[in-house]
Amino acid sequence: QVQLVESGGGLVQPGGSLRLSCAASGSIFRLYAIGWYRQAPGKQRELVACFISGGTNYADSVKGRFTISRDNAKNTVYLQMNSLEPEDTAVYYCNAIEPITYDPYWGQGTQVTVSS
């Protein structure tokens, strides 16, 4: 069982930046995948960025603006979000997937609002 706790959300103006953190209860090094999803009102949850299979994967809409990083010693994954746009407004969720079973785990989510 992996518990994930997100932090760092908030209100920011268009063009601004935020950094989200996801602290895991155990080692993230062993996980099959770990990363970030988001869900805007009335829309389906979508992948933002993740570490998977030794590499990274980004949604096209955030490439060049968002950067995912990790600190294995702290069991924490980060999402640096720059040049934020109103369309980035959503609840951002941390997600982790177990190896072998591929069981998913989710954090409680953190709200990001981009508005002037």
Short description:
Helices cover 0% and strands 52% of the residues. The protein has 116 residues and is mainly β.
The helix/strand series, from N terminus to C terminus, equals EEEEEEEEEEE
Separate helix tally: 0
The oligomerization state is single chain
- Fraction of residues in β-strands: over 45%
Count of beta strands: 11
Distance between the termini: 40 Å
Biggest sheet, in brief? 7 strands, mixed
Query: pLDDT average, as an integer?
Result: 96
**Structural Rg:** 13 Å
Structural class: mainly beta
Structural account:
The protein has about 120 residues and is mostly beta strands. The strands form two sheets. Strands 2, 4, 5, 6, 9, 10 and 11 form a seven-stranded mixed sheet that branches. The chain has a four-stranded antiparallel sheet with strand order 1-3-8-7, with no helix packed on it. The model has no long low-confidence stretch (mean pLDDT about 95). The chain has no helices and eleven strands. The chain has strands at about 5, 10, 20-25, 35-40, 45-50, 55-60, 65-70, 75-80, 90-95, 105, 110-115. Strand 9 and strand 10 form a beta hairpin.
